[in-house]
Specification:
This protein is α/β, with parallel strands linked by helices. It contains 20 helices and 23 strands. It has a 7-stranded parallel beta sheet. It has a 6-stranded mixed beta sheet with strand order 14-13-15-17-18-16, with helices on both faces. Helix 17 runs antiparallel to helix 20.
Length: 576
């Protein structure tokens, strides 16, 4: 094995490296930064400050070739700024990617590269500069789920290429060709698109591997007929007799439905074809239109909604059980296509009920990995559903009709979730908000585990400590119940909510309870703080940035999240 891990800063390459060692214990594993520190005797951050980035990049390259020359088998985790173009051709390159890469990340202990920018701006700028290079340099993109920190069997089989996907297509790109043998072993179905591969290459694969289930998707004019393909999918504009699938990719669903209706009405069409509709879907009402269209003839129709941010990936997972044509995400990086990890955790048999976290935003949520084993034991799955408050009130019934039974609620839906429940627990009733739902025969039970999670987070605070709370939102009532003597500040005005009290010059703890928004303000410069306790656990949290700016102690909200998740499982189990 000769493998390197590449990816953005803070994506988790080093922690993945040591899990990788658990999966492949006979192979030597190296963290390039650590090897440089051993060689030079100084920390990477100090090397940056002392010798500059250009000299550090030279040292990186020197150390990489030393490891490659001295070892016949190896796995190396590379720094985010390593020049992937300098990698030897025979090395297997895995791009470790997470959906939060584009959000930006803040670090307490890593060197800054562009001090004229804020930490988040710097991270976002580097993301834009590096993302395309990572994709082009990699043989495999591993879409790692948020919050995966311990060894995992699904991750193991992905990195070992010991899986077999039979019910979804993998879309081949040019950079996949060197590993076509392993891809054919792992994927029963592979799509060959005429806008991604040339006709000669497509025909070669069809001739050389006639046993493979190929889907040739014609997306360009004047393409050959590819008569020896298992299936041919033709955009409706390029239809020719003998194809099995006809597709519309109109941006608007109304236009797509019109195109397929007019195609079916053509007098020269006298053969039965499978219809595929893949528009850009902006809202739940259009999603339901597409779903109903597909369900009217489920055996002969497939509906694959697209979006700019991947918010329909949860629906695409359900499509595994409802329609003929599905895809998993790969080098094309279509965000609505479920990742390989997400696809492999889906049960083979359609579960009666399934679970999800709902709110906006939810892409950063670690709930999928935190609840993974719980729902595997129930032979079900957990997913993320982005939804606005008004759509939640209007279309929650649609979700439960699809089988949603176990629900984690995040901002801004906690008050709305409480309002639709008919049987709240005492804690939900007290806080008038819910972060957990259980649906049984359209009967909605609700609970709130914020109280228990927050108690875990602030367990070290003493009664004599001076505490300020920045923000609060839907958790404000809960925080006030636990910390009644704290000073409460509005994150949008920067002022104390209670005008009758005087601010302290310094606080032992600042409880950061505000999301990153354009409306949120920073605490005043004259507010002295010893420690930040953050209700957020995201890598771009404003609470983390504040602690970094002030160079003060920081406690992440991950502890609260984990405690909440465990209490949610207890609630769901009590209702099963």
């Amino acid at each position: 094995m000769k493998r390197v891990l590449i990816g953005h800063r803070g994506v988790g390459k080093t922690s993945l490296l040591w899990r990788h060692l658990d999966y492949f214990p006979k192979v030597k594993h190296f963290d390039l930064d650590h090897e440089i520190e051993k060689s030079t005797g100084i920390l990477v951050s100090e090397y940056f400050e002392k010798f500059g980035e250009i000299n550090f990049r030279k040292k990186e390259l020197e150390m990489l070739y030393k490891i490659v020359d001295e070892n016949s088998d190896f796995v190396i985790s590379l720094g985010a700024g390593f020049d992937s173009a300098a990698l030897p051709e025979e090395i297997d390159v895995i791009f470790v990617s997470r959906v939060t890469d584009a959000d930006g990340r803040i670090f307490l202990d890593r060197p800054r590269l562009k001090l004229e920018l804020t930490p988040v701006e710097e991270s976002q700028l580097l993301f834009k500069a590096r993302e395309r290079n990572y994709i082009m340099a990699s043989n495999l993109i591993y879409h790692m789920p948020e919050g995966l920190e311990t060894v995992n069997e699904i991750e193991n089989i992905i990195l070992s290429e010991a899986f077999e996907v039979k019910d979804a297509y993998y879309t081949l790109k040019i950079q996949d060709l060197p590993r076509i043998t392993s891809l054919m072993r792992c994927y029963e179905k592979i799509e060959l698109r005429t806008d991604l591969l040339n006709s000669v290459g497509i025909q070669y694969l069809l001739n050389e591997h006639p046993e493979q289930h190929w889907l040739v998707s014609v997306r360009t004019e004047n393409s050959p007929l590819f008569s020896n393909a298992k299936y041919v999918d033709v955009d409706y504009k390029y239809y020719f007799k003998g194809c099995q699938i006809v597709s519309s990719h109109a941006d608007e669903i109304a236009g797509g439905l019109k195109e397929l209706f007019e195609f079916n009405a053509r007098p020269d069409i006298n053969e039965k074809v499978h219809l595929k509709l893949s528009p850009i879907i902006e809202n739940f009402s259009d999603l339901i239109i597409g779903y109903n269209w597909q369900q009217q003839d489920a055996a002969n129709r497939s509906f694959l909604p697209r979006s700019k941010n991947g918010k329909w990936a949860w629906y695409r997972k359900l499509c595994k059980y409802n329609q003929k044509i599905n895809f998993v995400r790969n080098h094309t990086d279509m965000a609505d296509q479920p990742s390989l990890f997400e696809w492999l955790i889906l049960p083979n048999i359609k579960p009666q009920k399934w679970a999800g976290i709902i709110g906006k935003p939810v892409h950063f949520s670690r709930s999928l990995t935190r609840h993974l084993n719980y729902f595997l034991q129930l032979q079900s799955f957990f997913t993320k559903i982005e939804i606005e408050t008004e759509d939640f009130k209007k279309y929650f019934g649609f979700l439960t009709d699809l089988g949603l039974q176990y629900v984690a609620i995040t901002s801004p839906l906690k008050e709305a979730a409480f309002q639709i429940a008919v049987e709240p627990t005492k804690m939900a009733q007290q806080l008038r908000a819910a972060n957990s739902l259980y649906i049984k025969e359209k009967h909605i039970f609700c609970h709130n585990t914020d109280w228990g999670g927050f108690n875990e987070l602030v367990e070290n605070i003493k009664s004599k400590d001076k505490i300020a709370v920045w923000g609060g939102g839907g958790t404000l009532a809960m925080i006030k119940n636990i910390l009644p003597t704290a000073h409460y500040y509005s994150s949008q005005t920067g002022q104390l909510r209670d005008k009758d009290i005087l601010a302290f010059a310094s606080y032992d703890y600042l409880i950061w309870a505000a999301p990153r928004t354009e409306l949120a303000k920073w605490p005043p410069l004259n507010m002295q703080v010893i420690s930040v306790i953050d209700l957020n656990y995201t890598d771009d949290s404003m609470g983390l940035e504040f602690a970094t700016q002030r160079k003060i102690k920081y406690v992440s909200g991950a502890k609260m999240f984990n405690a909440q998740a465990l209490l949610q499982q207890e609630f769901w189990s009590s209702k099963n």
